[in-house]
Amino acid sequence: MNPRISQKTSVAVVFVAALFMSIMDATIVNVALPTIGRDFRVSPTAVDSIVIAFLVSLAVFIPASGWLGDRFGGKRVLLTAIVVFTSASALCGLASGLGELVAFRVLQGAGGGMLAPVGMAMLYRVFPPEERIRAAAILTVPTTFAPALGPVLGGLLTTDLSWRWIFYVNLPLGVAAFLFGLLFVREDRQAHPGRFDLPGFLLSGIGFGLAMYGVSEGPVKGWHSADILATIAAGAVLLAAMVVVELRVAEPMVNLRLLGNRLFRASNGVIVLGSIAFLGTLYAISLYYQDGRGLSALASGLSTAPEAFGVMGGAQLATRWLYPRFGPRRHITGGLIGVAISIGLLGLLGPGTSLWWARLLMLTLGLAMAQVFVPVQAAAFATITPEATGRASTMFNTVRQLGGAIGVAILTTAIVAIGPVHIVSHQLVANLTAYRITFAVAAAIALLGTTCSLAIRDADAARTIRQRKSKPPNRRLLDTASALAD
Known about the structure:
- The protein folds into two domains: 1-196, MFS general substrate transporter like domains (Growth Hormone, Chain: A), CATH 1.20.1250; 260-486, MFS general substrate transporter like domains (Growth Hormone, Chain: A, Up-down Bundle).
- A two-stranded antiparallel sheet has the order 1-2.
- Helices cover 77% and strands 2% of the residues.
- A hairpin with a 2-residue loop joins strand 1 and strand 2.
- The protein has 18 helices and two strands.
- By secondary structure, it is mostly helical.
């Protein structure tokens, strides 16, 4: 092991690479679905199972990840997850039929489900509370840049090479992350991980899986569909049973008692509502570009990309200046208001509005969203003990993942309900009113998030707020000034 590479750097490099790969995979595949359907000679509704299989598998395995990391060690579980995800990516690229591809996507989701919670717990254990803002800034790279890059890269690979390369592209990144982690990351195993909570795993895994399936397929099949209603109802019943069971277990798989922590509870509220508004808008704006304005998938991705650059710039602004001065309460609240304004202005886009104005709004959306994701991730775990960090990370990532799926479902439903097209002068044209109302809905959800951010008390997160040190006076300037005065 190279002592010159700190554990902060080692864990951050491996986790960011792995999380980037997993999150990008969720968006890169969407662009290639029509091509895959034509290649396998299946209907558009059937090919949708490629996305659903991944999301459901992800939801099933996330709840167990915290316990696995505590029991077997974060390094071992994270590297295993990377191997599973990368191997499954190779198998997806080699699939000869839809059935094989769906099966390999389930395996991919199992690896992806373990990546985020275990890696985040490791990251927050090596970064002390006063440095959590730096760790949170690191996390903005995969969580916000990957969703924007996915459609661009997916369009390029599908058009110029083959849809199989949207899976093969994970291989070099996965292999590099595994080897780096194997060499430089130290093992960190918790002393008392507790027994495996089988009832909690089954109830939470199946319950979240059914809920994820229901909210993902609801806009496609219709919320009145019998199987959608049955799936959501079954998921709700299982999750309700999970709450009852987990509150009675001494060492639960999903530690719901953590929600008794005021700061952690408010942070989860912010992350779920922020994810609904932000990730839902990223999906809706791609539909606006392609269906509303007639852009190609690649051009749509490129027009969405300014959001990622806004986030990266905004993360530096958050860590270096805003968070130390304003604390999480005002910082997050201001960020949510900025998100709502940016999304609301997207609703004013017309058929002849310059696309550069839309791209500028995507840039400001990224800048504002950084002022939500960075401070909330820095503050959320401030009062969580190191022993509970694994389970807390599991819950935080479950909420974030479900929020993204709900955001896409809500905004897609709004577009479908209003109608993406209408007849004008006997011609079928895009109905931009559907997108205007959809963006208004997303803006309202972002504003709703301020009810959670205002519940945050800066005193609870005081350990994460590092005051910037003032620079020592320049002695030469002081001596010169004194001489002039004399």
